[in-house]
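Subject: Protein entry, chain in single-letter code together with its fold tokens

Area: Proteins and the way their chains fold up in space.

Attached in line: The record itself begins immediately under this heading.
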Amino acid sequence: MLRVQQGSLYPALHRLERRGWIKAKWGASENNRRAKFYELTKSGRRQLQAEEGAWRKLTVAVGQVLETA
């Protein structure tokens, strides 16, 4: 499946936070350890919709290419 390395995940989360697409807050995890929790903002939801639309267009295009191969 998909494996995301720690060195990739946290910089990506910080970029999303700087762009205002997510917000973070500190809290306690299920095992009572300090953890940071992320949540989509209103502009993050709009961006997600735009990205989903672009992804769908790309997958349709790739599907069409594969059908002709």
